[in-house]
Amino acid sequence: MKKNFKKFLVAMLGFSVIGASLAGTVDAAKIPNSAGNNATSTIKVEKLKLVKEWDKVFPKSDKVNHQKVTFVNRYGITLAADMYTPKNISGKLPALAICGAFGAVKEQISGLYAQEMAERGFLTIAFDPSFTGESGGYPRFVASPDINTEDFSAAVDFLSTLDNVDADKIGIIGICGWGGIALNVAAIDTRIKATVTTTMYDMSRVMANDYFDKSKDKKTLAAERMQNRQLLNAQRTADYQAGAYSRAGGVVENPAGMPQFVKDYHAYYKTARGYHKRSPNSNGGWNATSALSFMNMPQLSYISEIQNPVLIIHGEKAHSRYFSEDAFEKMTGVKSNGKNRTIGNKELMIIPGASHIDLYDNFNAIPFDKIESFFKANLR
Q1: CB-CB contact of 111 with 56 (8 Å)
Q2: Distance between CA atoms of 361 and 234, rounded to whole angstroms?
């Protein structure tokens, strides 16, 4: 029975290594080193319209070189990125792929992180996820736990092939909702040698359970999810009838009377501090039905199997801190109890007094020295 099932998988997936792995061994000689005669399709780069002028929400550094680059993910979507290279450093460099926050673009938070880490000696890219910003993909403003995980791996593909990058020294940084996606990709992509998350969200959890797991009663949560499914699927029908996709709305225009974290989001995304014309959060938000796939596909199922080092950073006062604490516990089996913890090569760092948004652009809160030392210790 097991042998027949293995043959079925090989036939369905068309990849002999899958069958070998089910038997408990993988013959490395059978893994293709290049496309060669095994190629069934060609990687095609879409020509994107990339802005030439500096249009970031942070000032340009004179310590790094900046250029626009593109690369293609496994679904054929061409992604746009800003690449930052430290000046006056030669040879092969350690590299970082950076993305987030969820609903932001590379001209905002991820770009700030990328430029700062390039100043510290890393070649970095901050990229726009599929369907957003300057990246390709249609329809626009779609989020997907699978495709967005693939976006990170595609960034690693790109970095691994650069002449001035050491392919054995690649790490990633995921910010906010992209923190959860970073952990998801670290669980599957063994080329990623070290991972940092800051002010992490588990988007699958929040979309399935609402903030703070709105109700601890499983039956109540299940009933609420069913109601949300019905609403979202009705929206799918309406969208198709209209021939256009409805947007969920970005950060609210008037946060008066709302929780402090909503006011904090407004202070970043809706003011000169962080507003950007291509940012979903700053404008119309995601497609309204994007939540469906996240509700149905928990991201962090296999993070306990991540073998490479992980540093999880969160603000003490952040409404979202529970996401990081629970992810750390899932990886290590140890509760944090609101304290800094190090178990093996997994570390949780709580920033005293910091809110969720403080780790977007507050240099007094973001522990860049710690992030630098973590990567230098683990990308070597």
Answers
A1: yes
A2: 38
Same domain, 28 and 148: no
In a domain, 245, yes or no: no
The identity of residue 75, as a single letter, is: Y
Structural domains of the chain, count: 2
pTM: 0.91
Print the domain residue range for 187: 64-202+299-378
Rounded (5°) CA angle 355-186-25? 160
In whole angstroms, give the CA distance from residue 243 to residue 238.
9
Q: Within a domain: residue 69?
A: yes
Ordered alpha helix ranges (H), the chain = 2-13, 16-22, 109-119, 145-160, 177-186, 203-209, 218-242, 260-269, 291-296, 321-332, 358-361, 368-378
Is residue 14, in this structure, part of any structural domain at all?
yes
Q: For 317-360, how does the pLDDT look when each residue is reduced to its tens digit (9 = 90+)?
A: 999 999 999 999 999 999 999 899 999 999 999 999 999 999 99
